[in-house]
Amino acid sequence: MGGKNPYIEETKDAPATKKFKVTFVSEERTVEVDPEKVPYGPDGLPGSILDISSGFHLGLDHACGGVCACSTCHVIVHEGLESCNEASDAELDELDMAPGITPQSRLGCQCVPDGTKDLVVEIPEWNKNFAKEPEH
Ligand code: FES
pTM score, two decimals? Predict the structure, then answer.
């Protein structure tokens, strides 16, 4: 799946124009995001945390394919949240369904960093997809 959800309003985001880093704490992995390589894949908004996670095979679940129609891509942005786009009403509605939400919670498929800060992100244990696809 993937693509855009025609039933929600478009998000306003300003994708990164320079390289920045995202540390995924549970995976103990820091990746460098290169705007020239975005989108990394078909799922979620281009340059979103889901897109980044998929690009580096970090196993963030995304049952709806990244179209803001579930909450399985829930992440907690511990640092750098101020550099991300504002959550839309549709995102906040879906996020309400996620277990364990915090003030730093976002849907990974809708959260697009602008690259002005490095991020520290947690994928909650229950949102990890352990059936990882092989790298191509
Ligand atoms: S993958 Fe379904 S809302 Fe993000």
Answer: 0.89
| Range list of β-strands (E), 2-94 | 20-24, 29-33, 74-79
Is the shortest distance between the CB of 76 and ligand 1 below 6 Å? no
For residue 67, list its beta bridge partners: none
**CB 75 less than 6 A from any atom of ligand 1:** no
Could you tell me the pLDDT band of residue 12, with boundaries at 50, 70 and 90? confident
Please tell me the distance from the alpha carbon of residue 35 to that of residue 39, in angstroms, as a whole number.
8
Q: Which tens digits make up the pLDDT trace of 103-136?
A: 999 999 999 999 999 999 999 988 777 665 555 5
